[in-house]
Design brief:
5 strands, five-stranded mixed sheet, alpha+beta, 99 residues
Length: 99
């Protein structure tokens, strides 16, 4: 659902965390992977391009969640489906605020 909502942005984002574990396990005898309801992603961009990614994510139907004590280098977005909510945390690597 989140990958569909992100569309072409998926080519610019590295997904990590529990949401990708099932994609990495290749042993057919391994135990099933616990479901997760959020997606964590990381981008390696300068500050202005990170803000551009945020704007593009919002244009894909995600609502930005303003959370207290959250780093300026991380943004949390939610996408709402007919009967559920999914969230996507996008973290920027090595971002430096412009003076």
């Amino acid at each position: 659902m989140i990958a569909d909502a992100l569309g072409e942005l998926c080519g610019h984002i590295v997904f990590l965390g529990g949401a990708v574990v099932g994609l990495l396990v290749s042993d057919p005898l391994a135990e099933s992977v616990r479901a997760t309801y959020d997606v964590d992603a990381v981008v390696n961009l300068d500050w202005s391009r990170f803000r551009g990614i945020e704007a593009r994510v919002e244009s894909q139907g995600f609502a930005r969640e303003m959370q207290p004590n959250r780093s300026a280098q991380a943004s949390c977005f939610s996408v709402y489906g007919p009967s559920h909510q999914r969230s996507c945390d996008i973290v920027g690597l090595g971002l430096q605020r412009k003076p």
